[in-house]
């Protein structure tokens, strides 16, 4: 346990609009089996040939576990007010429950203390997809008990860090890890089963509600939320079957978690499908008061009817005149603006953008520099759209770039670079990109001339 005095100055002195960066544990930490850490479902998944590009793993990743002080120094130079990171559940509870792992907890103590010393507010996300494999062996999120194992894990983290951390998120992108992990393929645990998918949705929602209650009871002055990936789901063609597919996917992607958690009901298209897994009192357990809505957003989805998975939904082409990132995602800043306005109206919560950014094929030039003008153009357009949303009345209070570092990008391995800091994976060297310096200049300029507030 850290012996430092509680520190809340970072939160108290934060500007009206908060600039930050985000990462996640499995994508940057490495040290996959060091200091008592247990395996996660992603450690297992990466070892199944062909699952991940180049059969990459998170065994070393960015080696943040050993180089966190260097990364905090990069954030301090950048001038961000906050850093959103996640805790690795199997690092602190190797079997997912039972005895805690002191070296794992001590790592997060060191990280949090370093952030506070640098004047950076820690935003702690409990779950960014790396479920302990020991719980995966028991069914993972398809097992109702997982919701309560998660609550116990939340209690451990709250007791350990709540003297210094006040901002907590329960989950990151529940729609993503359930859809791709349980029914559409492409992510851990690699299951394709419609019933298990529906059970996992409900159990994650139960885990969220239980964790919110635990955090409220253990952390004085806690500010609690959850991070959703909200993206417009549009039909790829006007064909009735594609319109129907887009509406169904919208219900799963955008509504299956936020609606029951905040509005107290599953979307109408999903209500009958979820009914078999709902027990008496569950919706009340799920719909617990939260303080803010965390948004991740990159682009709209263009959907079509497709029989390649049990949902009968797949991705269609985006409009030909729309530019795309190196991931193939359409670049449509107007969709970001409209999403922010719609969320603020629908859920009536302050919104923090906790992921936005783009992948680029970045390289180090002859001068040892990394120039990424297309990323800067992307960030400019999306931040301008955020300003338009605020001017239209959306209550948007912060923006965090994904990501601080190039990192392990799930099924894409290390083939896609999202960072504003380049990482040489062979040596671990960090090289701030042109976008890093651009973002630092933006933060400094808005300190003198704050981003326009919502009207």
Summary tags:
455 residues; alpha/beta; TIM Barrel; eight-stranded parallel barrel; three-stranded mixed β-sheet; 17 helices; 13 strands; Glyco_hydro_1_beta-glucosidase; GH
Brief overview, please?
This protein is α/β, with parallel strands linked by helices.
Large-scale geometry: globular
The helix content is 40-55%
CATH architecture, by name, is Alpha-Beta Barrel
Instruction: Briefly note the structural class of the backbone.
Output: alpha/beta
SSE ordering:
HEHHHEHHEHHEHHEEHHHHEEEHEHEEEH
Strand tally, please?
A: 13
Helical stretch tally: 17
Name given to the CATH homologous superfamily = Glycosidases
- What value does the average pLDDT take? 95
Number of domains: 1
Low-confidence stretches: 1-15
Query: Major sheet: order of its strands?
Result: 1-2-3-4-5-7-10-11
Keywords: Carbohydrate metabolism, Cellulose degradation, Glycosidase, Hydrolase, Polysaccharide degradation
InterPro entries: GH (IPR017853), GH_1_N_CS (IPR033132), Glyco_hydro_1 (IPR001360), Glyco_hydro_1_beta-glucosidase (IPR017736)
Enzyme class: hydrolase
Organism: Rhodoplanes tepidamans
